[in-house]
């Protein structure tokens, strides 16, 4: 039986080259989320589940000598992102972020439009990612749609993403606090789902 990472890899690889046409993001809303993060020009940023690189141009607007590490389980998605966004301040990594032996700490870790795909490893993901933050660094789970809309979308899509659910905000807030993440931005409505926390220890 395939593991969840390889199943997701196959699913997103098969859709990568048409993804930007079939999955359209509201760029103004994406920019709004990024602006909330208070990114510094020298920040080191981890873009988890970068896909075709939706976040990258918005992150780059805030950086001078900073750096983006963009990770995805789908090498085909990464190919699309790399064609769109090149630069010495972007590193693309293929694989499962929860299994990667990062040596550096990050100022910001973004999980944009991907957190449900951690499947049964969501709480582990918060623990692992929080440990990759420097003191004062931020972890953000975010979507430009409501929780209900995201869960409905995955249910309708079926296949390996059918049961990929975004947990209730209360569950995620508790998990953040358990990992010494001080809550910064909490929004759960019809327009956005945003939870960010700052590492305090």
Automatic annotation (TrEMBL):
Residues 45-137 form the Methyltransferase domain. GO terms for molecular function: methyltransferase activity. One of its GO terms (biological process) is methylation. CDD domains: AdoMet_MTases (cd02440). The keyword Methyltransferase applies. Keywords: Methyltransferase, Transferase. It comes from the Bacteria. This is Class I SAM-dependent methyltransferase. It comes from Proteiniclasticum aestuarii.
């Amino acid at each position: 039986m395939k593991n969840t990472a390889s199943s997701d890899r196959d699913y997103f690889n098969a859709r990568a080259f048409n993804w930007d046409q079939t999955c359209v993001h509201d760029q103004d809303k994406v920019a709004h989320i990024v602006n909330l993060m208070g990114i510094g020009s020298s920040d080191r940023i981890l873009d988890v589940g970068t896909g075709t690189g939706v976040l990258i141009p918005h992150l780059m607007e805030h950086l001078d000598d900073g750096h983006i590490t963009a990770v995805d389980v789908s090498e085909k998605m990464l190919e699309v992102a790399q064609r769109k966004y090149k630069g010495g301040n972007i590193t693309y990594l293929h694989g499962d972020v929860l299994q990667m032996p990062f040596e550096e700490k990050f100022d910001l870790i973004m999980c944009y439009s991907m957190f449900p795909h951690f499947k049964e490893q969501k709480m582990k993901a918060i623990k692992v990612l929080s440990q990759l933050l420097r003191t004062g660094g931020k972890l953000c789970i975010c979507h430009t749609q409501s929780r209900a809309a995201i869960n409905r979308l995955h249910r309708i899509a079926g296949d390996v993403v059918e049961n990929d659910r975004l947990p209730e905000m209360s569950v995620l807030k508790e998990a953040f606090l358990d990992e010494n993440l001080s809550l910064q931005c909490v929004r759960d409505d019809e327009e956005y789902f945003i939870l960010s926390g700052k590492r305090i220890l």
